[in-house]
Amino acid sequence: MECCRRATPGIPLLFLAFLLLSSRAARSEEDRDGLWDAWGPWSECSRTCGGGASYSLRRCLSSKSCEGRNIRYRTCSNVDCPPEAGDFRAQQCSAHNDVKHHGQFYEWLPVSNDPDNPCSLKCQAKGTALVVELAPKVLDGTRCYTESLDMCISGLCQVSAEFFPFNLCEFWCLCLHGSTI
Question: What is the pTM of this model?
Answer without folding.
Answer: 0.66
